[in-house]
Amino acid sequence: MYMAFMGGKDRLALALLAWALAAEANVELPDVVEDVQAVSQVQPPTAFVTAPPKFLPDSAYIHSMPPADSSGRMHFYISAMVLFYAGVVVLGTFILWLGTKCKNCKAEPEHILSSLEDGSDAPQLPPRKAGLSRRCKRALFAITFSFTYSATLAAAFASGATGRLSQKTGLCWEVYLILFGTAGAWQITQAIIAAVILPKGRRYGLKTFFTASLSGMCPIISDAYDTLKDMILAALCWQSGVTFVQVIGILSLVHLAALHIYCSFFDDKCLAQLCGSHLSVLVASTEDTTPEDTSSKQLPLCRRLCNTILPMLYKQVTPTKRKLMILENVPQAFFAICYLKVIGGSLFVGLLNLAIPVP
Q1: How much is the pLDDT for 316?
Q2: Environment class of 59 (CB within 10 Å of its CB; exposed 0-12, middle 13-18, buried 19+)
Q3: Helix, strand, coil proportions of the chain in percent (round to 5)?
Q4: Residue 202 belongs to what H/E stretch?
Q5: What phi-psi label fits residue 228: left (phi over 0), alpha (psi between -120 and 50 degrees) or beta?
Q6: Alpha helix locations (H) across 119-219?
């Protein structure tokens, strides 16, 4: 009877799995790509896209797909990533807002109480950041980068081993979605930690998580994106079967690891720059809990947008950022040139490693 019961549970699990896989094809999402095109043509965004019938299909299935199905598959996963990112931003912003409320709603900030007891005129404000020590930042960065390095390495080489790695798109869209989801989960985890360790008397602004998420998740800006494209290049080099190109791929992996180890232990400025990407929420600045100055809210919309965007753009051209770009992207660009010279035929490699080298 027990075996029959177990067999019944197994059949039920298989039935539920089959139902989930069958229902997957009926999932519809707003087609972000088509909606953007519609809005650009002053039309209402009403397009939807259906989920592909297979998750992580094999290479033969991908190559045999008609152009319309291939385009629809791309639209679905791009839309899924955009909507997922929007959900991450909303949830992360709510967590930081809730943490601020919980830390400052019951009692006066500790720095004000202590200053009143001492009889001093000017209270000692808490630090602008959440208070992670340099040693803690170094340890967290080492753990985070090690996970990013391992996850992207496994994704790239597993895709190559299963025939899903291509010169046209790199990884499958499903793998991109999984990696993007992992990055979003880490951003939410950081928000929870930041809300817990937030000092009393400080708060996070409503734009804090959004700005931090751009540094931590956005392609081209985040260091995780740069790590992923280097891993894809190394996997493509290994997949080529040419000994010289395979050696280039190994050198790419060694260079990437060695550079981050050097920055982690021997260059505090580069470490701070990398922490701004891998630990973007935890190192985000906080604000005082005093009432906001409403004069900035009276500025024109364009001026407020410039005040928000220009600091982010400046961070991409600081001396430390330029140093990192030279140390990381120049060797990787050389490796990409060697790959294209010997193997050729990959616009994907040329675009990501030569035309858009900014991490």
Answers
A1: 64
A2: middle
A3: 70, 5, 25
A4: strand 202-203
A5: alpha
A6: 134-161, 173-197, 208-217
Report which secondary-structure segment, H or E, holds 33.
Answer: helix 32-40
Q: How does DSSP classify residue 354?
A: I
* Lowest-confidence segment of 66-75, 188-197, 286-295, 304-313 by average pLDDT: 286-295
Task: Let me know: does 193 contact 187? Beta carbons within 8 Å.
Answer: no
pLDDT at 9 exceeding the cut of 70:
no
CA dihedral over 280, 286, 292, 294, signed as positive or negative? negative
Structure tokens at 29: 């999402």
DSSP single-letter state for residue 30 = E
Q: Give the SS3 label for residue 252.
A: helix
Q: Which of 77-81, 191-195, 290-294 has the lowest mean pLDDT?
A: 290-294
Query: Per the structure block, which two tokens stand in for 293?
Result: 């100055």
Section 127-135 average pLDDT? 66
| Structural tokens at position 110 | 């500790």
So what's the pLDDT on residue 23?
Answer: 44
Query: What mean pLDDT is predicted for residues 263-283?
Result: 90
Query: Phi and psi (nearest 5°) for 282?
Result: -65, -30
Alpha carbons 326 and 218: distance in angstroms, whole number: 21
Q: Per-residue confidence at 151, pLDDT binned at 50, 70, 90?
A: very high
Using 50, 70 and 90 to split pLDDT, how confident is the model at 305? Answer: low
Q: Beta strand 28-30 with 202-203: parallel, antiparallel or unpaired? A: unpaired
User: What is the average pLDDT across 47-72?
Assistant: 83
DSSP 8-state secondary structure symbol assigned to residue 255? H
**Exposed, middle or buried by CB within 10 Å (0-12, 13-18, 19+), for 24?**
middle
Run of H or E residues at 340: helix 319-342
Residue given tokens 């990192």 in the structure block: 324
Say how far apart CA 63 and CA 357 lie, in whole Å: 29
Alpha-carbon distance of 356 to 148, in angstroms, equals 21
Q: Report pTM.
A: 0.80
Q: Can you tell me the distance from the alpha carbon of 27 to that of 41, in angstroms, rounded to the nearest whole number? A: 27
* Residue type (1 letter), 155: A
